[in-house]
Write a structure and sequence with these properties.
mainly alpha
Length: 77
């Protein structure tokens, strides 16, 4: 079994969050060469290429609500 097949098999048993983090790590390694895009491929916006990796990364996480602060008292105009 090749290293790629072993990695795919190991990742298939992991939660999607873990698999996504491993994929991001592998893409960040020096020497990673992204597959070439076909010449007739449509232009892709920045959302689809970068931010889509992080969108939903904290889904299901609980966020503590900030404490209510006093209203700022301003002088009359």
């Amino acid at each position: 079994m090749s290293a790629r097949e072993e990695l795919l098999q190991a990742l298939s048993n992991q939660p999607e969050k873990v698999a996504g983090q491993v994929l991001m790590y592998l893409h960040s390694l020096p020497g990673y060469i992204a597959p070439p895009k076909p010449i007739d491929a449509p232009a892709v916006d920045y959302w689809a290429t970068h931010w889509s990796k992080f969108y939903g990364a904290f889904e299901g996480e609980e966020w503590p609500e900030p404490e209510e602060q006093e209203y700022e008292v301003r002088e009359e105009w």
